[in-house]
Every structure is written in C-alpha cells, then in structure tokens.
Amino acid sequence: MKCVKTQDAVGHVLCHDITQIIKDVKKGTAFRKGHIVTEEDIPVLLSLGKDNLYIWEKTEGILHENEAAEYLRDICMNENMIQSEVKEGKIELIAEIDGLLKIDVDKLRAVNSLGEMMIATRHTNTTVKKGDKLVGTRIIPLLIEQEKMEKAKEVAGDRPILSLIPFKKKKVGIVTTGNEVFYGRIKDTFGPVVAEKVKEFGADVIGQTIVNDDIEKITKAVEEFIEQGADMVLCTGGMSVDPDDKTPGAIKNTGARIVSYGAPVLPGAMMLLAYYEKDGRELPIVGLPGCVMYAKRTVFDLVLPRLMADDMVTSDDLAGLGLGGLCLSCDICTFPNCGFGKGV
C-alpha cells in the first residue's frame, strides 16, 4: 500500500472505502476498497477532500481480490451456467437452464477449509430454474497470495465443483395395481397425481395400465411399457408388506436390478427403486408407496428430479436421505425451500 496524489491515481486500486456525506441528503460509501480509479472519479474524489489516496502496489505473487475471484469462478463454473460481474472480490453463478444442480461436497469443504476465500452453494441434488442463483464466491481480504489460489485449484482438481444437468424428455408408463381399482369398486386417484408430477419435468405419459393383484399380470404390464419405448415405469399400489401386495415381487420378476426396497424417508419409507437394462441403458422402475397419492411431498419428490436427469441413484444415495429425510408436514409447504431431503 502506498500514498499517491489523487490526480496520479488513475488505473490504480483503492485500498480502503471512501465515505461521502451530504448533510440531510446522503451518508454512505462513494468508493469501495478494490475500486479501480478512473479519470471521471478524480473530480469527485477531490470534492470529498481526498487530495491523496492509498492505493495497492502491484507485487509479484500477490493478487487483487477481483483477480483471485476468477480462480473461484473457474473452480465452480460448468456448462449451463453464466457468471455475474466481478465486484469486490465476489462472483456469482446463475443457471442458464432448468435442471438438476449437483455439488461435489467433499471438494467444496476442502476449498472452504483453506481460509481467506469462500464458496456458498445451494444444496446438492437441487432442482433449479433458469435464472436461479447457484453459488456465491468471495475472496475475504483485499489481497491474497497467488500461491494460495493455485492451491485451491489443486484441491478442486480438474472438474468443476458444480454441475447442472438438464432434464431429459422422458416417456413414462404408469402401472396401477389393486383389485379395488381394477374391478371398479373405487376410482383411481393415484395415477393422476403421479402423472402431474412427471409432467412438471416435461415428461410424456404414454399410458396407464390398471391390473388386479396378480403378480404375473403386473410384471407383464411393466414389460409391455418397456417394449413400447418407456424410459421409466412407475407402479402405484401394492407396495406394503401385506401378503396380497404383489408389486415388489412383480418388479423383481422383470429381471430388473433392485437398488433398494425401502428408504429412510417419511413419508415414503416403502418405495422400491430398480433399474431394467435394455439396449445398453438402465431404465428406472419405481414402486411408489401409497403416501405419494395424498401427502404433499414424499420420497418421490426427492428421487424424481435425479431420475429425470438420468443421474443414477444408488443404495448409498438413498441411505444418505435419512439425514433431513423427515418431512414436517407444515401447514404451508415451502418445499424445496426447506430442510426436507437436504442432508449435510
């Protein structure tokens, strides 16, 4: 830091805030630290009584906050994102599309542990809309060692910490089971709920098949949708452990790979997730518990965005939903802007 005459400060970086006070009109910061002085600033600065300014001296190996902020941008930024302007050592990234936001949580923690810099993101596996803010970054001091920013790049590795995966246009088949529905004793109210949820992600429901509690017929209905080109099959009904609930066994009989029957989420503990291999692709088959029909938000709302983005869900992923997996059934639902399904 050195002191120079204000007229000689053009192109230099201020090392401190400069306050402007106009009686009964204004009291605030006219120029913030880190501001690069322009020719137009000189008269204003002189009017504020600043005949001299303290400016940053360029030193080899030392970065200004705005230069260092670009390191954090590069660590975070991926496809389908745009950046804000660099200001006071801060850069934000904005979603350019609707999609599924994923965060490398371990790398995020590692970079934030270095000190003098910060990256604050939304939760991982969050559904975002075009224009949503994804992350805010900031360099804490005005000046920082370049070596430290290079260390941050090394810790983050070759791949950005954030990724934004677009949702795929999927064809969905719905298999509804239950003697009470099949024989017309009650009206099906489950299928319409599920159809509405997948349509929110741009999916096409190619059909709904209603079958009775016959394990072979349920299996056949699932397989027929796959043959018709369904990218995903959702099964409603028959998902508890009662002897006449045949859906889990029917899904297993398709030969699909069972990821998990059960998830540590309430509502939604009885969900079954499986993947059926066809032509080199793994197509999700989901057995949905009855709560999806009447509860505002369930395990299905946590898993569906990932399925729509072709983001493979593992048994470990499901196990991790236990932390934050209790929906509080608030009178006014604010999901996804709440803790449900957020975990660490």
TrEMBL record:
Pathway this chain belongs to: Cofactor biosynthesis; molybdopterin biosynthesis
Gene3D superfamilies of this UniProt entry?
Answer: MoaB/Mog-like domain (3.40.980.10), Molybdopterin biosynthesis moea protein, domain 2 (3.90.105.10)
A Pfam family assignment: MoCF_biosynth
Domain (MoaB/Mog): give its ranges.
Answer: 173-309
Enzyme Commission number(s) of this protein? 2.10.1.1
Q: Which reaction does it catalyse?
A: adenylyl-molybdopterin + molybdate = Mo-molybdopterin + AMP + H(+)
EC class of the enzyme, as a word: transferase
Signal peptide location:
none
Role summary: Catalyzes the insertion of molybdate into adenylated molybdopterin with the concomitant release of AMP.
What name does UniProt use for this protein? Answer: Molybdopterin molybdenumtransferase
Species of the source:
Intestinibacter bartlettii
